Amino acid sequence: MRYCQLVLGPAGSGKSTYCAAIQKHAETMNRVISVVNLDPAAEAFSYETLLDVRDLIQLDDVLQAEDMDFGPNGGLVFCMEYLLEPDGLDWLKEQLGDYEDDCLLFDCPGQIELYTHMDVMKRLVQQLQAWDFRVCAVFVLDAGYMVDAARFLSGSLTALATMVQLEVPHINILTKMDLLNKAAREQLELFLEPEIHELLASEHSISRFNKKYQKLTNALGKVLDDFSLVRYVPLNINNEESLTDVLIQTDFALQYGEDLDVRSKDFEYPDPEDRE
């Protein structure tokens, strides 16, 4: 059994930073976690890659092709569809090889439509499962974006749509906690274990728009609240305990280690005659 995390989220949410931090933290624990770049539009990242999808196809090449007329979003969809063609899958399978290290992190594109209502990533999940990978989704959101009640609801619904679409174990991570000031951290604490429908009706969501659509907003919040569908794990990449907590959460979601052989050691008991 092999294990992988699909690291998803909007552009600028900190997916690449998450991958780099987890990879580096794993080294301190004598674990090998490698990263696969699945973003054809990536320009730079701070982690070491096991493989890079740009070796197969790049967004710039698609946008500059004379026989195509794609914008950035359409070009990115084309790239991901190309990866899932038979030739692209053969390339991906060959590059992955018989990798048997602890876990793979797939740093995915930041186009949210790929996760919420298109079947591209779902097809990738199904292919990885067919290759004997155990898959979980790690959905990352910028903590600075989530300190507002309306944005918190928006981010939560996006995470929920991704969870429903992919149908795999799912963890939501709030990144960039280290960049929040004290006031923002205190504000965010209100949302980590919230009574969402009550919070949305509080002074944090008073606006003309929310007054007009108050019933709809409260109904959406109540769905999230009643079924406990979306919860978040805060991540501070400068805190080792925070990184360890996230790694424990992902290991649990993947059921990592359950198939490993138990390590045993033979002990030699002292000979009673040697004591005399």
Brief sketch in words of this structure:
The chain has 276 residues and is α/β, with parallel strands linked by helices. It has helices at residues 15-28, 59-64, 72-83, 86-96, 113-116, 120-130, 149-166, 182-192, 196-200, 208-212, 214-226, 240-254, 272-275; strands at 2-8, 33-37, 49-52, 103-107, 133-142, 170-175, 232-234. It has a seven-stranded parallel beta sheet with strand order 3-2-4-1-5-6-7, sandwiched between helices.
Description:
The chain has 276 residues and is α/β, with parallel strands linked by helices. The protein has helices spanning 15-28, 59-64, 72-83, 86-96, 113-116, 120-130, 149-166, 182-192, 196-200, 208-212, 214-226, 240-254, 272-275, and strands spanning 2-8, 33-37, 49-52, 103-107, 133-142, 170-175, 232-234. Helix 7 (149-166) links the parallel strand 5 (133-142) and strand 6 (170-175). It is globular and about 70 Å long.
Structural class: alpha/beta
Q: What is the 3D form?
A: globular
| Rg value | 22 Å
Separation of termini? 51 Å
| Binned strand content | 5-15%
Helix content: 40-55%
